[in-house]
Structures are given as C-alpha cells and as structure tokens.
Amino acid sequence: MKRNDTEFAEISPSEFFYRNRDLAGFSNPSRALYSAVRELFENSLDACEIYGKVPDILVRITPLDLDTSIPDPKAYMIKVQDNGPGVDPRYVPKAFGQVFFGSKFQLRQTRGMFGMGGTMAILYGQITTNKPVSITTSIDGVQAFTFDLLIDVQENAPIILRKASHPAEGSTGIMVKLTLEGDYSRAYGKILDYFKQSAMVTPYANITFINPYGHLSIYERVTKVMPVPPKETLLHPYGMDVEAVRRLIKRSNEDSMVRFMSKNFHRVGEKIARKFINYSGFDQDRDPKTLSNDEITKFVRALHRYEDFLQPDASCLSPIGEEILMTGIKKELQPEFIATTVRPPSAYSGFPFIVEVGLAYGSKILPRGLKLFRFANRIPLLYDEANDVASKVLNEEIDWRRYKIPEEAPLAIIVHVCSTKIPYKTVGKEYLADRPELERELKNATREVLRKLSLYLSRKVSIEMDKRRFNIYGKYLPLVAKFSTELSGEKRLPDYKKLLDTKKVQRGIEEYT
Fold first, then answer.
1. What is the C-alpha separation between 85 and 139, in angstroms, rounded?
2. What is residue 491's DSSP assignment?
C-alpha cells in the first residue's frame, strides 16, 4: 500500500506576499519603485486629510551609489516626509512591520484598503537590499522617535533594531526612509505622471519631489479648501454576508433582534428593524446569540431580498467637490473650458459611492484627441486603462457625434469614484470593475459634462460669427456714413461709433464663455 507523504504547513501573511508580491504591484524593479513611492505618499495624504491638516509632503529618491555609470536596476533610498499628525510610537513597529495591521479597516473612505501597501514596500526593500527601514514620528511636536525595523517574514512581526528619541523642534508627522532595488530610468515617466495627476485632485497640497539627479518638481497649493473628512459608518444590510453577521452577533451585547439590527446596521432604526424582522419570520425579542448557522443564513438571505431598507448615506465618503476639482483642473491643465459635475450618492452591494466627472477642453498642455484621467478615492490610476469601466463607458456607451466636438481637439475627461469599497479588479488597485451601478453613474455624469461642452461650442460659433460681422461693420460703416452724409447734403457725420463699441462686444463674449 502506497504511503501518503503529503505535508501540510501554515504560512504567515508576510510569507504569502513575499512569495506573491506581484499581486500588490511589486512585480519588477520599475513597477516596485513606482508602487513604493505611491504607497508611502498616499499614506501621508490620508493622514493629513483625515485630521484636517493642509498637506505639505516631500518625496525624494536618492541612489545609494552616486556613480552615475552604474546602470539600473540599482539600490535607491526613498524618503517621504509629511506634516501630518504622526503615529503614536507604541504602534509604529506593528504599523510598519506587520502585514494587515493598520488604520484602514474601518468602514470609511481612504486611499488604502488592505493596510498592507506601505508594509509591502518595506518588505520588498528588505528582500532586495537587506536594509532596514527608518521611521521617525512625532505626535506633539515636542519629542520625536526614530525606529529602525526589519520584518520577520515567517512570523509576520517587526524586528526592532534601534529605537531613539530626540527633540521634534515643533514639527509633527512621519518621515520614512526606505531602501529598495529600483529602475528609475523606466519608472520616472509614471512617477512624474502620478504626482502631476495627484496635484490635479489635491490642489490644496504642497508636493515637493526631488529625483535621483537632484531635479526639483514643486506642485504648489492654490487653495486651502479641503474635502470634508469622511466619517466611520456601519455596514449596510445589502452588503452583509453570513460571516459578517456571525461576527456582529459574536461581539454584540444586544439581547433582542430589534436592538441588534438598530445598533449594528447602517440606516436601520427600530421601526425599520421591526418591519424587517416580521418580514423575515423571526421573533423580535429573540436573543441573536441563539441563532443557529442555518438561521443566520436565512436571516442574511432575507436581508438581501428586503426592498424597504434606506439607501446608504454619503457621510462616510469624501468627494473632491466641484470647486476643488475645477481648481485642480485649471491649475494643471490650463484649459479653455472646464465643466464638472458630482452625481448624487448611489450604492452597489450596500456600499455607497459617488461619481465625479470633470472635462477640460482646448488645453495647450494636452495632446490632440481624447485623454482619460482616472481616479479612485483620489488615487491616480495609471495602468490597465483599457480594462477600466470608465474606458468602456467612453468607448462604447457615449455617442460622440451628437455633441459635435471637433475631431482631434484637445479634450480631457477626468473621472473620480469615491467609495468605502472601491470595486478594484486586482490587489494592485489599477482599474475598476464594470459594476452596473457604477457604469450607469459614470455614463450619466459624462453625458452631463459633454452637454455643457456642446452648449459652449455652439455659443462659441455664434460669437465667432458675431465677431466677423462686427469686423465687417467696422470696415464699411464709416464709408456708408460718409456717402450718406454727402448724398443728404448734411455737413456733420452721424454718430455711428456707438454701434462699434468694442468693450460692449467683449463683455458679451465674456458672458457667453
């Protein structure tokens, strides 16, 4: 009889992502350098925005070996420093040295979703250069703490090599110094595009980027108006599954089904809870902890079928807003015409989302033709555009002929989706799935800004015709006045100059545009 020699083993989350780092966007030195910059920069933006601090962020990439003849890929140090609230020193080792430990697991809008982006960058740096990460934090501006860390991959735990304290000199925030193997020669285009697009949707941030050659790129803030920070919220009944309900029951202290629902479900009060429990066939006063597995499954199925739950509200979301979006587009693209719209809140699978769309026409910065800029929770999405739902909407759902936009005219469509759960298709967060609800809102928002552009273009044609007529009048009206005077025998020319008031015509043009 053949013996079964199969062995079973357990691996930690760190070990899993060490073996499968491609899933998180660390597939090669070029992509890894871009992903590391992005993850650390987004952590800084999130920290500043959630606590209402206008961001000042410095990013610097420095080659470890200053000999420029050494080709890429090679070791680079990434330094990211912000003016945010900092991280309590008690949590620094786990926040930066343990996969799936962080502040991104509450149900509210943040750029990160999994709490592993920054840690994955640190892990990639460790396995390619074997150098520790250095984190400096201050939460009060008085005292700062510096940690040098490695990650124990097998145990998914931080290894503290050094901890020191020193005066903060009035500055709060975080500074991360990370060394990894990167290919800047291939990544620089994406990195520059990333910062430029980030500046478009965060015109309230000062962003300073210093590249490996010492070249400085500064994206200055043009407004101090920031989006309203999102609030933490509860799960909506339509977004519940069996495991989520089981966990809620386990940690709940409510002893009746009515109180359990009204305390743990988004936009469910006692009145709606009683109606639903009657609909689902459960006893209103029953202790939820007595539900069997089969009864929990029945309960969840009833949640998904019940049609009278209120739609999720948008308090847990933080859209950019028309004013800020318009300011950012004007700053970075300098277009002839801008249109923006913010759609009302909607939901998919119980998760609220808001779609914002901007349009820029006639920019000297933009290339000819259509350019799509995609953002999700204010993150620029630079890869896999063809697979994104926004690309599908623009290419398949929009009848461009009806808007009479000149071919090859410089035109940009800026799409932003914010949600407590962005429907990414990959862990790398690069393109959005074609959810029907999301597709519908994108289509309606795009049509709205295109209608505004179409109206502008038609008015522009009318204005151009008026200007041509005005030029003709300006050329011939003095002659007509002269001949009329001679024929009538009058000695004084009629006052025709009021009809050629250029300031009045210019005011009319400005009102139309």
1. 6
2. S
Q: Are 371 and 419 in contact (CB under 8 A)?
A: no
Tokens of 407: 């071919």
**Do residues 195 and 80 touch, judged by C-beta distance below 8 A?**
no
Nearest to 20 by CA among 144, 101, 124, 142: 124
Q: Contact at 8 Å (CB) between 82 and 137?
A: no
Note if the pTM is more than 0.85.
no
Kindly report the number of other CB atoms within 10 A of residue 502's CB atom.
9
Say what the alpha-carbon torsion angle 474, 476, 479, 480 is, to the nearest 10 degrees.
-110
Copy the structure tokens of residue 511.
């009102």
- Rounded CA-CA distance 122/128 in Å is 10
Tokens 């273009």, residue located: 457
Contact 438, 353 (CB under 8 A): yes
**Residue of 265, 267, 264, 376 whose CA lies nearest to 313:** 267
Contact 437, 348 (CB under 8 A): yes
Q: 């005077």: which residue's tokens?
A: 485
Phi first, then psi: give them for residue 239, nearest 5 degrees.
-95, 5
| Residue ranges of the chain with per-residue pLDDT less than 70 | 1-6, 8-10, 13, 18, 23-24, 100-116, 427-428, 461-477, 486, 491, 493-513
Q: What are the strands, taking DSSP E only, across 369-470? A: 370-376, 379-380, 411-419
Rounded Cα distance, 387 and 398, in Å: 17
Distance linking the first and last C-alpha atoms of the chain: 87
Q: What is the pLDDT of residue 421?
A: 86
242 membership: H or E segment, kind and range: helix 242-251
Q: Report the C-alpha gap between 460 and 464 in whole angstroms.
A: 6
Contact status, residue 123 vs residue 14, Cβ threshold 8 Å:
yes
